[in-house]
Design brief:
- The chain has a two-stranded antiparallel sheet.
- It has helices at 7-28, 32-35, 53-75, and strands at 47-48, 51-52.
- A hairpin with a 2-residue loop joins strand 1 and strand 2 (51-52).
- The protein has three helices and two strands, in the order ααββα.
- It has a domain at 12-38 and 45-77.
- By secondary structure, the protein is mainly α.
Length: 95
């Protein structure tokens, strides 16, 4: 049984889309509540490697988004999918 030629690319595109959407939600949306410590907790860690925890969380998800874009750029996107832009009519041809 043979697969369609674009099946592997389609699966990668769906996976990258899901990862990107998860990174958007977790990076700046409800995901910040997962790492935001309770200010009343005396044992709460507000920093990670000397940086604010929320900042590290947001930067991590930014790099996930950037990695998804780079993988898509080098594996999925190519110039052959889009035709050349239309050329303006030439005065010599009478168009």
């Amino acid at each position: 049984m043979s697969r369609k030629p674009g099946t592997k690319r389609r699966r990668l595109a769906v996976a990258l889309s899901a990862i990107f959407l998860a990174a958007v939600v977790l990076g700046t949306g409800p995901g910040i509540y997962l790492v935001n410590p309770d200010p009343a907790d005396p044992n709460a860690a507000f920093t990670f490697l000397g940086l604010p925890l929320l900042y590290v969380w947001a930067v991590f998800w930014f790099f996930v988004q950037a990695a998804v874009v780079l993988v898509a750029y080098f594996t999925l996107w190519d110039g052959r999918e889009h035709p050349d832009p239309p050329r303006p009519p030439s005065a010599r041809n009478g168009d």
